[in-house]
Structure formats: structure tokens, C-alpha cells
Automatic annotation (TrEMBL):
Name of this protein: Dihydrofolate synthase/folylpolyglutamate synthase
SUPFAM superfamilies: MurD-like peptide ligases, catalytic domain, MurD-like peptide ligases, peptide-binding domain
Pathway assignment: Cofactor biosynthesis; tetrahydrofolate biosynthesis; 7,8-dihydrofolate from 2-amino-4-hydroxy-6-hydroxymethyl-7,8-dihydropteridine diphosphate and 4-aminobenzoate: step 2/2; Cofactor biosynthesis; tetrahydrofolylpolyglutamate biosynthesis
Superkingdom of the organism of origin: Bacteria
Organism listed in the record: Billgrantia sulfidoxydans
Protein family per UniProt: Belongs to the folylpolyglutamate synthase family.
Domain Mur ligase central: 52-195
Gene: folC
Single annotated GO MF: tetrahydrofolylpolyglutamate synthase activity
Catalytic activity reported: 7,8-dihydropteroate + L-glutamate + ATP = 7,8-dihydrofolate + ADP + phosphate + H(+); 10-formyltetrahydrofolyl-(gamma-L-Glu)(n) + L-glutamate + ATP = 10-formyltetrahydrofolyl-(gamma-L-Glu)(n+1) + ADP + phosphate + H(+); (6R)-5,10-methylenetetrahydrofolyl-(gamma-L-Glu)(n) + L-glutamate + ATP = (6R)-5,10-methylenetetrahydrofolyl-(gamma-L-Glu)(n+1) + ADP + phosphate + H(+); (6S)-5,6,7,8-tetrahydrofolyl-(gamma-L-Glu)(n) + L-glutamate + ATP = (6S)-5,6,7,8-tetrahydrofolyl-(gamma-L-Glu)(n+1) + ADP + phosphate + H(+)
Keywords: ATP-binding, Folate biosynthesis, Ligase, Magnesium, Metal-binding, Nucleotide-binding
């Protein structure tokens, strides 16, 4: 198959979706070979590299590390996935989305390398990861923050050695690839650790296998609730206490709640300290005060958009909504993929949902609104409407919202992306 022409970003993305026989093909042999040809394994990607893995909380943790680092005057690059509206969202350079020229140049570099000598087949994600790493390496920022796409040990991001590894949470998700054994999933996530380099554990409920992997490879452990913690302060505020070396115990008080999991906020702060960055209290407060992460507890008027798509994430959302009761009804607009635990998500949200709108997502992996409605009704939930698309469900609901009502949109990146685009179109 020839390379795309004309070489627009959309043409490249279409091409990359078609050149590998399967969408997900875990393993490092192919991607490492292309990375070697590109020179990515022979030089430092950045002065410091933090790699973030976990089931939930990766995106918000990356965003907080990035915001905190930039507030301290560091140059940054952040690579995340998936995107909501534009592929450019996946790579941020000094806080700004990468432009088309940067991404296309990266894809061209990957294509040249993978076709050299014996051609190597890459997945869409692998090619995109290598293109992002190439763009980051050309800038050599003070800090690169890399989010693992799936798992850890065999994820394309793991071709780069991290100075600090972060594990946010471990829960059941992507069972077709990672299985349903939490200890086994923990070992996969722990594959981003490197001997002699610290690992920050961002949950007090990780399986034993994570710490066992750290001990086996000689990675110093900094664990939430042990070496570092957060404590509640005044309303909307919290304090953080961390660890540096064997003796120093840095702390920052009176931090603003960023509207994201405080476990993740504490983890982000500890990750920066573990990377050798001395925290400035004023800079930390400014970074967290002004932080907004699209699709993560993102409020747009009466609508709250969150990409949570498994029971663990749904339980967090239910807890946050319970903390801020409303005088009206709480609606849940839910659209999910067929390989996700819909019953578990419905159960987690049942206590805060007064009414449900079930929506169908497009694509072969999608779950129908009828299937969701049956599962919701099976748990005594009231399904007010079944919509053929998220946009149709949002339009139906918008005409019936009372002034004191609110809507939680969740279940999938695809659901949130559709409603985010719909809201933006409504405001235009």
C-alpha cells in the first residue's frame, strides 16, 4: 500500500488505520525496531521522562503533572490517548496541541524508518506513538509525560525508559487483552518500571503484584497513604505531604481542589518531586486552580461530561455527584461499547440517577440503546428515552430539562466526544 497523497493529516490517519491487519497488537518487537531505526533509543527524549499507566485516572494525572510543571517554568511535552475531537489533542507541546505540520512530519519519519531495509508493519497507535516521540525528541523538553495506551509492559510507549513510573489505579477493563485477574493486570501495568528509578503508586488499593514487581526490579516505591498523602482542608481545599529521599518531607497546604480525583492530584505532585523538581507553593496553587481537562468532570452549564467507562470510574462519578446535590433531577445519558461492563457501570450510578437516556454508538464494537435500556431496567432504573445516537439523546433531553436538573454524560470516549461536539455546535 502506498503512502497517502495528498499528505494531509486526515489522509495519514486514514492510511495508518488500514496498513496493519488488526487494531490492537500488543508487543514491543516491531515498534522497538522502528524506534531504533529512527534513533529514538540512542538519545534522551527529554531531560526527564514520566510514564503513567493505570486503569483509571491516567489522563487527569498526566494533565496535572503537565500543568504543575509548566507553572514551575519547565518546558513540557505530553502524549495521551485517545482523543475526543481532534487527533492533535494527543500531543501537547508546552501546553498547546501539536499542529498538523508537526504530526505529519512525525508520520513521514515513521514511514521512512519502517519501510527501510525489511519493512515493519505498525498499528495506528504504534505509528502515532512513534511520531509523537519523534516530535518530542526534536524539542528535548525539560519534561516529557507519556500516557500508556493499554496495559504497560507491551504498550508502544514502553520503548522509552521512564525516569519516574506512575501507576494510578488497577481495575477490570480491556479484559479481552489484559484478562480478569487483577494481579496479572497489575504485573502488566508494572512493566513500565525501571530498576533504580522510583515508581509512584497512586492508589492504596493496588494488587500485591505491583509492589512485588517493584521489589523484583529494584524500583524504589512511593505509595499513596504511606510515603505521600493528601489531607482535606477547608471547603474546596486540600493539603499534600510527600517524600524526597530518606529524610526530607515536602508539603504544600491550602491547595485548590481541581475537580479531579485528589488521589491523582497527590500522585502528580509526588511524581514531580520524584523527578527532582522542587515544588513552589504559589505555582502549585495556580496550576491546580486554573486546570480544566476536557471530558473529565467537565461541566458545561447543567451538563457534566466524563469519559468514565468502567465500574471503578462510575463509582467515582457517583461519589462526586453525591457531594454536590442538586434540587432537581439527575439524568444520566449513557452510551457504551459492547466489551465494557455495562451492568457494573449502571449499578455504580444507580444511586444518583433519577432518569436515564440510553444511546446507541456507531461501529461494530458498539452497544445498542435497547441493550443498555434492558440492563438499566433490570436494576430498577427508569429509562426515559432510547436514542439512535448520542446527539439525538442530548437533543431530546435538552428540551425537557428543568432549570435545577443536571445531566451526567458518560460511558465512553465516543459518547463524550459526540456530546462535546454537539454542545459546541449549539453554542456557535
Amino acid at each position: 500500500m502506498t503512502s497517502p497523497s495528498p499528505r494531509t493529516l486526515d489522509a495519514w490517519l486514514d492510511y495508518l488505520e488500514r496498513i496493519h491487519p488488526v487494531g490492537i497488537d500488543l508487543g514491543l518487537e516491531r515498534v522497538a525496531e522502528v524506534a531504533r531505526r529512527m534513533g529514538l533509543l540512542e538519545q534522551r527524549l527529554a531531560t526527564r521522562v514520566i510514564t503513567v499507566a493505570g486503569t483509571n485516572g491516567k489522563g487527569s494525572t498526566v494533565a496535572m503533572i503537565e500543568a504543575l510543571a509548566r507553572a514551575h517554568g519547565l518546558t513540557t511535552a505530553a502524549y495521551t490517548s485517545p482523543h475526543l475531537l481532534r487527533y492533535n489533542e494527543r500531543l501537547r507541546l508546552d501546553g498547546a496541541e501539536a499542529d498538523d505540520v508537526t504530526l505529519i512530519s512525525g508520520f513521514e519519519a515513521v514511514e521512512t524508518a519502517r519501510l527501510a531495509d525489511d519493512p515493519v508493519s505498525l498499528t495506528y497507535f504504534e505509528a502515532g506513538t512513534l511520531a509523537a516521540l519523534w516530535a518530542i525528541a526534536r524539542r528535548r523538553p525539560d519534561l516529557a509525560i507519556l500516557e500508556v495506551g493499554l496495559g504497560g509492559r507491551l504498550d508502544a510507549v514502553n520503548v522509552i525508559d521512564a525516569d519516574v513510573a506512575v501507576i494510578t489505579t488497577i481495575a477490570l477493563d480491556h479484559a479481552a487483552f489484559l484478562g480478569t485477574d487483577l494481579d496479572a493486570i497489575g504485573r502488566e501495568k508494572a512493566g513500565i518500571m525501571r530498576g533504580g528509578h522510583p515508581v509512584v503508586l497512586g492508589s492504596s488499593e493496588l494488587p500485591d503484584s505491583v509492589r512485588q514487581c517493584a521489589e523484583a526490579c529494584g524500583a524504589p516505591v512511593l505509595a499513596l497513604g504511606q510515603e505521600f498523602r493528601w489531607t482535606p482542608g477547608a471547603v474546596g481545599r486540600f493539603g499534600w505531604q510527600g517524600a524526597v529521599g530518606d529524610h526530607a518531607s515536602p508539603s504544600v497546604e491550602d491547595l485548590p481542589d481541581p475537580g479531579l480525583p485528589l488521589d491523582n492530584a497527590a500522585t502528580a505532585l509526588q511524581a514531580l518531586v520524584a523527578a527532582g523538581i522542587a515544588l513552589d507553593e504559589v505555582s502549585c496553587r495556580l496550576a491546580l486552580r486554573d486546570l480544566q481537562v476536557p471530558g473529565r468532570m467537565q461541566w458545561m452549564g447543567q451538563w457534566c461530561l466524563d469519559v468514565g467507562h468502567n465500574p471503578h470510574a462510575a463509582a467515582y462519578l457517583a461519589g462526586r455527584l453525591a457531594e454536590r446535590p442538586c434540587r432537581g433531577r439527575t439524568w444520566v445519558l449513557l452510551g457504551m461499547l459492547g466489551d465494557k461492563d455495562a451492568d457494573g457501570v449502571v449499578a455504580a450510578l444507580a444511586g444518583v440517577a433519577d432518569g436515564w437516556v440510553a444511546v446507541t454508538l456507531a461501529g461494530e464494537r458498539a452497544r445498542t440503546a435497547a441493550d443498555l435500556a434492558e440492563r438499566i431496567a433490570g436494576q430498577a432504573g427508569h429509562v426515559a428515552y432510547q436514542a439512535p445516537t448520542p446527539e439525538d439523546g442530548a437533543a431530546w433531553l435538552a428540551g425537557r430539562l428543568a432549570p435545577d436538573d443536571r445531566v451526567l454524560v458518560c460511558g465512553s470516549f465516543f459518547t463524550v466526544a459526540a456530546i462535546l461536539a454537539w454542545k459546541q455546535a449549539q453554542a456557535a
